[in-house]
Amino acid sequence: GEDVEQSLFLSVREGDSSVINCTYTDSSSTYLYWYKQEPGAGLQLLTYIFSNMDMKQDQRLTVLLNKKDKHLSLRIADTQTGDSAIYFCAERDTDKLIFGTGTRLQVFP
Amino acid sequence: DTEVTQTPKHLVMGMTNKKSLKCEQHMGHRAMYWYKQKAKKPPELMFVYSYEKLSINESVPSRFSPECPNSSLLNLHLHALQPEDSALYLCASSHPPNLAGGFQETQYFGPGTRLLVL
Question: B-side interface with A, Cβ within 8 Å?
Fold first, then answer.
C-alpha cells in the first residue's frame, strides 16, 4: 500500500454523500478497483473503472478518474449505516493488485 | 456465482503445530492468490498460482507452503509459525492475466481465515 495513498478516516451523517479519495502511482494501470471490507470479513468488490474512462456510475456509486493527476475517487450517494466499513482502492500491476492504505468510513445517524 | 470459500474461518495454533488453510472456487478461474492482512493494513500478496503453477512468491518464508492440487482448490500449509504470523489470510481468484488486460482478470475474494499463533 505504500504507493497508493488514501485518507485514513471519513465520518458522514446518514443520508449525506461520502467521497473517498485515492492517489495511485502506476500510470499504466488498465483497471482500478474499489473494494469494501466490513469488520472481520473479506473484501467485497464494489466497482471498477477502466483507464480510458473518466467516470462510471453504478446505482449509488460514482467513480471518477483523473489520469493526469492519478487521482481516483468513489462517491457514495445517500450514505447508509450499512456503508460503514473500510474502503480500499486498488490498481492492477500485471497479475498483482496493489492496494491503497484504506479509508475507514463511519456513518452516524 | 462469484463465491470464493475458505475454511476454517478461525484457527488457533501453537508454534509447533502443522495446519492447512483451504480455498475453493467454482467460477472456472485459473489464477488463485493468497494474501495476508494484518489489522488496520491493506492486504499484501503472498503467492499467485496461474494454471495450477506457482507464478509469484513474494519472498514468503518457507514456513508457509502453498499448494494448488487442481484448478478449483488452493491450500496453504502452515508449519512452525511465529506469533507475528497471526493475521487474516485471504484467498482470491480470477481469470489469468493476459496481454489484453481485460476486466475478466478482476479478483474475487473469500471471507478469509483469521489465524492466531500462540
Answer: 2, 4, 6, 31, 40-43, 45, 48, 50, 55-56, 90, 92, 96-97, 101, 103, 105-112, 114
Per-10-residue mean pLDDT, chain B, length 118: 89 94 94 94 94 93 96 96 96 77 75 96
Dump pLDDT digits (tens) for A47-68: 999 888 899 999 999 999 999 9
Q: Are B45 and A48 an interchain contact pair (Cβ–Cβ within 8 Å)?
A: no
- Which of A33, A43, A45 is facing B90, going by the closest CB pair? A43
The chain B residue lying nearest A91, using CA atoms, is B106
- Residue B96 is given by DSSP the state P
Question: What type of residue sits at position B7?
Answer: T
Closest partner residue to A42 (CB to CB) among B42, B55, B110 is: B110
Cell readout for B22 is 483451504
Specify whether the CB–CB gap between A38 and A52 falls below 8 A. no
Output the 3-class SS for A38-104. Answer: CCCCCEEEEEEEECCCCEEEECCEEEEEECCCCEEEEEECCCCHHHCEEEEEEEEECCEEEECCCEE
Burial zone of B92 (CB within 10 Å; 0-12 exposed, 13-18 middle, 19+ buried):
buried
